Amino acid sequence: MKSMHTCLTLTLGVLLCTSSTVARAAAPGGESSEAAPREVRVDALPGGPLRLSFEPLPPAQALEPLRPEEVREVLAALKELSRPREGFEPGVTMASVGPQDIPGQWEHHLREAFASRYGPPLLPLPPSLETSRLFMALKLAPRYMGKGMSEAARELFSSRLFLASVALSVLVYFAAWVAPEPLFTKTFAAALTLRLSLAVGVLELTRVALACVRLYREVEAATTLEQLEAVAERFGKALGGTGLRVLVMVASMGMARGLPQVPQGGLTGLLGSPRYALPGGLSLEGATTVRMVADGTVLVTGVAAGTVAA
């Protein structure tokens, strides 16, 4: 008789298609991954939620360097994502027809895109992203990033469109980490959180998120250019190569047209093969809510369970 196991059937499409069969997928730079994905423990809790437990892993060395070629692919993909949907040139603003603190048309579209995907802002949005202290600190950060990523980061952070997207990522998505146990109820945000958890691990994702939250808090407290420079230095040194890749994914996914498909181009392979996989080749495709628990586990609700033959 065929053995049976639980199959997780969720509702978000291809964004989270993940399986143990991708154990040896190519990592960034064309290198093979160091090891097969570590299996996530899945426990069903009373009332329907699933608890996903991630065994801590050492940092992924293959993700630390960021090559200039990857950056150029990302920038090209971002430009392509913005133009067809919004019908404008990202580098053009409307500053010449109104006060300097009024955001340009491209920024209005960008704000609407992020809100539609991640939900309403959790932190106050500045009148204009480009003139905000957060934007300025982000622009300064690459000079303090580590060896192997600073050159690529400078090119990446030279894009006004990318910087504005990162600023919105901090204010709209990473702001959820202000809570002791961040909760994601917006379908897209829940899906991306699961995708990133499987790609880099809960500890790494949380570390990046907390660095972004700290950046916002320190930027708000800064009153001089010297203080702003010091904030940028701390953020640049804390981010790391893997963190920068996570930041790129969150920023770019806020602009993506197809929900919840991963954009093509340099974005698809930016995180390489997943570092974690579900048992038995199962796949996560979505959830109603995702809660990041303080003990390093993830609670997923809104799951329909079924069975398939092994």
Report on the architecture of this protein.
The protein is an alpha+beta fold and 310 residues long. It is 40% helix and 11% strand. It contains 8 helices and 9 strands. The strands form 3 sheets. A 5-stranded antiparallel beta sheet has the order 3-4-8-7-5. A two-stranded antiparallel ribbon has the order 1-9. The longest helix is centred in the C-terminal third of the chain and has 29 residues, at 225-253. It is globular, with a radius of gyration of 19 Å. The model is unreliable at 1-33, 84-102, 258-264 and 304-310 (pLDDT under 50).
Task: Give structural attributes.
disordered N terminus; 310 residues; five-stranded antiparallel beta sheet; disordered C terminus; globular; two-stranded antiparallel sheet; alpha+beta; 8 helices; 40% helix
Task: Furnish the topology, listing elements before pairings.
Blueprint (H helix, E strand, L loop, with lengths): L3 E6 L28 E2 L1 E4 L5 E4 L14 H19 L18 H14 L14 H8 L9 H7 L3 H14 L9 E2 L2 H14 L1 H20 L3 H29 L22 E2 L11 E4 L4 E5 L2 E6 L1
Helix pairs in contact: 1-4, 2-5, 3-5, 3-8, 5-8, 6-7, 7-8
